[in-house]
Design goal:
single chain; mainly alpha
């Protein structure tokens, strides 16, 4: 295809496509109570609309990623945005909750195309530090959008209702479709996969045999566990435990989202993505551990909020780095790699979100923060040892004097 995409246009388009998934799943959350009345149903049925959209976002990426490796990025983007527009229109005019739930699954599948293909486009066009910068934008939006979407929806629900929010989603879909028509293909014919559909699916096996890629994906997945644990628990902790209003809760929700965005932007200032992911992982363990102790002892709000802000900040440092390193390690299968990467994040979110309500929500949330942080750092270490062994060797070298000192002290005591 003739022509090219300017860097500014690409970054704007990639950012918008990345934000699309969280907008689809989270923006209408504050309107769930009003939807119960509209469809004359219970809360469980209404919440199934959220569940079905998340399932769609996970499943859709598994198909859109490999297909974009075969047919190119642009055709699949046009298909996904067109499907989203049609499904959103039908959502608005759903006659009953069962139809709405089914259409939300279709809407999630459609929205997944933009998420998975945006990472593939970045991998097509950028290398090294430029790729890290592009992934920093994607990482910042991945962190901010799931948190900011309910806040935006909360401001709009009272004035325009749930249908108004879906109309806004429809308009966003139309704008993105127009942008995709302007988009120039980034995957040349000679670089596309020539296998049939069965062959494309077999690429998943090849990607999963890349241990470095797998552990970067798992690092991101556990980090997403921290994010979704916060999203699902903070409304109850802030409003029910600390007694804040919905509006005040929304303000703090927004402040916390800034921590992730700032960290994702700052991560490119590190010497390398490996250093950012290592230091971010240490920070996650440190702050999540203190948060766990604080919440278990019924700490004040200012302590809870300060530690949460710092935890989300250190988590944000790892988002960009894990995305960059994972996609770099599977550049030749970027569509499939992006599909698995994105689906894993939503899968971890779906698993972790309901767990925070088990037992005392304060101590359970703190425990999940800590366990996910430890597992995330562990996966990062395994991946880093395979990516750049010298980095882990230098870390062990710095720890060696301390270990020798402790051993010598024990020997003197003996």
């Amino acid at each position: 295809m003739k022509g090219y995409n300017s860097k500014a246009f690409l970054l704007i388009l990639l950012g918008a496509l990345t934000a699309f998934g969280p907008l689809v799943t989270d923006m209408y959350l504050p309107s769930l109570p009003s939807m119960m009345n509209y469809f004359d149903t219970n809360s469980s049925m209404v919440q199934l609309g959220l569940t079905s959209s998340m399932i769609g976002l996970a499943i859709g990426q598994i198909f859109f990623g490999p297909l974009s490796d075969k047919y190119g990025r642009r055709p699949l983007l046009l298909v996904s945005m067109s499907l989203f527009i049609v499904s959103t229109i039908f959502c608005i005019f759903s006659p009953n909750i069962e139809t709405f739930i089914g259409l939300r699954l279709l809407q999630g599948i459609a929205g997944s195309g933009g998420i998975v293909i945006s990472r593939s486009i970045a991998t097509d066009k950028f290398l090294g530090q430029d790729l890290a910068k592009a992934m920093a934008i994607i990482g910042a939006i991945n962190g901010i959008a799931p948190v900011a979407s309910p806040v935006l929806g909360g401001f709009l629900t009272d004035s325009i209702g749930w249908k108004g929010i879906f109309i806004i989603l429809l308009v966003i879909g139309i704008i993105l479709l127009i942008g995709n028509f302007r988009f120039k293909e980034t995957l040349p014919q000679q670089h596309r996969k020539r296998e049939n559909i069965i062959g494309l699916l077999s690429v998943f096996g090849k990607v999963l045999h890349n241990r470095r890629y797998v552990f970067y994906v798992l690092q991101m997945g556990f980090a997403m566990g921290v994010l979704f644990a916060n999203i699902s628990s903070s409304p109850f902790i802030m409003q029910q435990h600390y007694g804040f209003s919905a509006f005040t809760f929304s303000l703090f929700f927004g402040i916390n989202s800034l921590a992730i965005g700032i960290a994702a932007a700052m991560s490119v200032k590190f010497k390398s993505p490996e250093h950012a992911i290592f230091l971010g992982g240490i920070g996650m363990i440190f702050f999540s551990g203190i948060e766990f102790i604080a919440l278990s002892n019924n700490c004040s709000f200012i302590i809870y909020e300060t530690l949460l802000f710092l935890l989300l900040f250190t988590m944000g440092l790892t988002f960009t780095s894990s995305t960059t390193l994972a996609m770099e390690s599977e550049r030749q299968n970027s569509g499939t790699a992006s599909a698995l990467f994105g689906a894993t994040g939503f899968a971890f979110g779906g698993i972790v979100s309901p767990l925070v309500s088990i037992g005392n929500i304060l101590s359970t949330t703190g425990l999940i923060f800590f366990l996910c942080s430890v597992c995330s750092f562990g996966c990062a270490i395994i991946a880093l040892k395979q990516t750049h062994p010298y980095l882990w060797t230098s870390v062990k070298g710095r720890l060696k004097p301390a270990v020798q000192f402790i051993s010598a002290s024990k020997g003197r005591k003996g």
